[in-house]
Amino acid sequence: xxxxxxxxxxxxxxxxxxxxxxxxxxxxxxxxxxxxxxxxxxxxxxxxxxxxxxxxxxxxxxxxxxxxxxxxxxxxxxxxxxxxxxxxxxxxxxxx
Length: 96
Fold this sequence. Notes:
Helices cover 68% and strands 0% of the residues. By secondary structure, it is an all-alpha fold.
């Protein structure tokens, strides 16, 4: 399946972040690793699931593990090169 390449905007960044959170949450081992490595606890995830800060933490986690990033991209049909710009937007930084 072809992946559409387009510029990521704020709404797109939030969508990618939400998809990434769902991707991690569907697999207990992935989710537990995210929680352990980021120091975020389950109550924080529940309380802040849609916040830019949490979604940025999720995307930052993906960018630190290329195989996880590529698995996410394959399962969600999100171009892996869209994750870094989405992360930058959620962190209010200039997009790469």
